[in-house]
Each structure stands twice: as C-alpha cells, then as structure tokens.
User: Which sequence fits this backbone?
C-alpha cells in the first residue's frame, strides 16, 4: 500500500503493530510487576497503558459518533497485562477499520467531543492525528517504564520504511 493512498490507515496500522509489539514484551511481567510503581507521569506501567486505552476509547467513540463521551472514563482499570493487551488490540482494530473507510469528505467532517466545560467540535483529521500522537507520547513513557521493570524494550519505529522493516510489521502491510 503506498502511504499516499491511505496515510491515516498506515498510521492506525503502525499504532496497532506498536501496541502489539509492546504488549508482547510486557507479557513477561506478572500482574504485580505490571502494577508496581514506576517513574513517569502515571505511577505504573499498568496505569500508563490503561490511560492510553481509555483515551483511545474516548476519541474512537467521538470519531464513530457513538455518544458515550466522557462516560468512557468511568471504567475500572484492567490490571492484567494479557487482558489489557486484548482490549487494546480490539480498540486498535476498530480504529484501523474506521481509517480504512475514510474519504476526503469524512476527513473534513466535524465531530463533537465532550469536555469538562461542554461540547467542542473538531475535524475528523485532527482527531485522528491527535489520537495517534497521544499514543506515541504515552507509549514512549511506557517504554521507559518497561525498561525500569527490567524488560528488554522492543524497537517500535521500524514500520514505515522498506529498509529495516521488522518482519512482524510486514504482516500489517499485507
């Protein structure tokens, strides 16, 4: 797939691959180590990854006009690496499917996001870019937390280029 044909889909697939790769490495942790205090904005790897997941739920709901709004934040954290990996993978699939159906009109269309101060409108393209950037930002923090836990951290930037693309990324391109 040429990137120019579907750049938003490519970002969603990269995101799904990076999350799957990260969770494969994190699966070496037991649930106690997963929830143990770690340096970073969120006090544990568990909390950091739950934050990524719930913010994904929030923005994917806004993109799909699901109407849940801020209620997605009223959920319990998932304390199992395996269960959170499965939930994140399901969310990543929904996001990739949404991006696979994008049209220029959809990208320019407006969605509402429910904020503490009320509803705000945003363009779909901006919401997608923000969701991806949010994931990258916090996955970087989680990467440092995983290293703090003594786990060899995976390379997460070998997705787009033909040169050096890791084999596990190739399956997302076909």
Assistant:
């Amino acid at each position: 797939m040429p990137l120019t044909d579907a750049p938003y889909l490519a970002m969603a697939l990269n995101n799904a691959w990076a999350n799957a790769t990260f969770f494969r490495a994190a699966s070496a942790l037991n649930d106690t180590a997963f929830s143990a205090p770690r340096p970073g904005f969120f006090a544990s790897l568990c909390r950091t990854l739950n934050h990524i997941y719930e913010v994904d739920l929030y923005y994917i709901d806004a993109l799909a006009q699901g109407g849940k709004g801020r209620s997605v934040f009223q959920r319990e954290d998932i304390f199992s690496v395996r269960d959170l990996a499965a939930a994140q993978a399901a969310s990543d699939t929904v996001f990739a499917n949404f991006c696979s159906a994008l049209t220029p009109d959809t990208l320019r269309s407006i969605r509402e996001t429910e904020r503490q101060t009320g509803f705000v409108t945003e363009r779909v393209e901006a919401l997608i870019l923000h969701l991806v950037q949010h994931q990258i930002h916090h996955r970087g923090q989680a990467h440092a937390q995983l290293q703090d836990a003594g786990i060899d951290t995976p390379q997460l930037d070998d997705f787009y280029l033909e040169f050096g693309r890791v084999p596990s990324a190739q399956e997302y391109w076909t």
Q: What stands out?
A: Strands lie at 110-115, 118-123. The mean pLDDT is 93. The longest strand covers residues 110-115.
